[in-house]
Amino acid sequence: MDAQGRGRADDIDPADQWVLNPQTGDYELRLTPSAGESKVPGPRRTGPRGGPRDDRRNEQRDVPPQRRRRAPQPPPAGANRRRSKTKKKSTAKKVLLWTSGGVAFVVLATAAGGYLYYRHLDGNITAQDVVGAKDGFSKDEAFNILVIGTDKRTGKGNEGYGDKGSVGHADTNVLLHVSKDRTNATALSIPRDLIVDVPDCQAKDPGTGELKTIPGTPNVRFNTSLGQSDRDAGCTMATVKAVTGITVDHFMMADFNAVKTLSSAVGGVEVCVAKPVDDPDSHLQLPAGKSVVEGEKALAFLRTRHSFGNQGDLDRIKVQQQFLGSLARKMSSGDTLTNPGKLTSLAEAATKALTVDKGIGSLSKLKDIALEIKKVPPKNLSFLTVPVRDNPADGVVHKTVILQESAAPQVFDAIKSDVSLTETKKKQKAAQDAKLKGPKSAAADVRVDLYNGSGKTGAAQSTLTWLQNSEGVGKSSQMGNKPAQDKTTLEYSPDQADQARRLADIMGLPGAALKEGKSETNDQGLPALVLILGKDFKGAGTPISGGTAKVDAVKTTADKTVCAK
Hints:
By secondary structure, this protein is α/β, with parallel strands linked by helices. The chain is built from 13 helices and 26 strands. It has helices at residues 3-9, 80-124, 233-244, 256-265, 296-303, 313-331, 334-337, 340-353, 363-374, 408-416, 425-431, 459-470, 497-507; strands at residues 18-20, 27-29, 126-128, 143-150, 170-178, 185-189, 195-198, 201-204, 211-214, 217-221, 250-254, 269-273, 277-278, 285-286, 289-293, 355-357, 381-385, 388-390, 401-403, 447-452, 475-481, 489-492, 514-516, 520-521, 527-533, 555-557. The chain has an 8-stranded mixed beta sheet, with helices on both faces. α2 runs parallel beside α8 (340-353) and α4 (256-265) packs across α5. 37% of the residues are buried.
């Protein structure tokens, strides 16, 4: 019999069965035995003379007793109004108590269900213990995450993709850098066919679990930094460090299934192609213009090479960047964030698809990372590829690439120095400096003598090469070393102010670096600016002001759609 039935059977007001427990401050349902139910006798207490002890007067009751309904009495004269008020009060009390009890149950059930689902999602995540990954995640620092897409053919429907029998190489690699102030981020694609020297690394033996050192391999493709010779993601992180000088904090690794499940979870990803695609290898068929792809079709879009550009890996990377930008927009859109069904599907797909290092191997850590990345405006999320050129060792048929020496260091230095590749508020603020306002000469008219006071070997020469080859400042000379100084300075005579402003704009110098004074005579007998690199110099092409890096590389941003050609 339910609570209400018990109350009626024993002539007890159902509302009175919800009583306040003074110890907890909560209402509790207190039931008494119904007719036919026996009471379990407790131990008999005796008084000082052996008789029954009566301590009703001193007894401390934890919960007030239930009150039995009194037999109806004839109302006294003139009591109709008072009885009406009492009835209304009793009804309101019943509604309040029953409602509060129901709400408490719903809240409790929801909290319990939420906790269980949280634990379920947490259990979906696969975490690996790799050498080199940070222990934990900090919300107050810039961070670098290496996102790896493997070509391992595990999972239903993936038999036709990748290399048959592959142990899972680093097929797609994106180094994501998020700035300390969260105003910008850079997604740097590393070609799988980039020739590198894979360094020695430590990894756990898949059989025994013991840590072992895996010898490095010179002059090989970047993708062999994972899978080959039992190398794990920690070895790929170490290879990134050796090639770029950038320290990787964490990794996230996914296989073909991740693309299919994530794209389906958000209801499809919008892509664009400049011409119709009918690729016999990937089986991708798309009309010209915009389309929405998900599942198998999304994976086919990312795997297609022969329908885009020069049919190589570099053009496929551009397609992948387009897809990732569109996926980022879709995941952060109101249509996804306000749709409980999509959020649940996305949470399931993301936690099942990813393998991460132990430092971020929990749902709470991944949530923190997602929230920090969400702070970056899409217009300030840059996608670009490591600047490379064809490998001359390949001969006529170009299969691999090598670093482009003049441009790649600029990109690496910008990321290491936490400098944006897009226009941010810092750049706008620096442009308002009074010394930088006014007419600027052409770059070809700038005459400058360059000195190294940074204490960094080769800083002046690398800057001279960049100025002449990339920025058109041909009238520049490298004059050797100067005593070390903390700040970079640019001294000029008043009649060369327009040249100084142009050079400051090219190098990203703050107004504080400009010093009106005297020029010097260069080796051609003409007045020249005097540029002395200080300890704040970060690299050729990297702004000292901390503004926007000037790099000789093609980039796109997440807020724009670029159709694949």
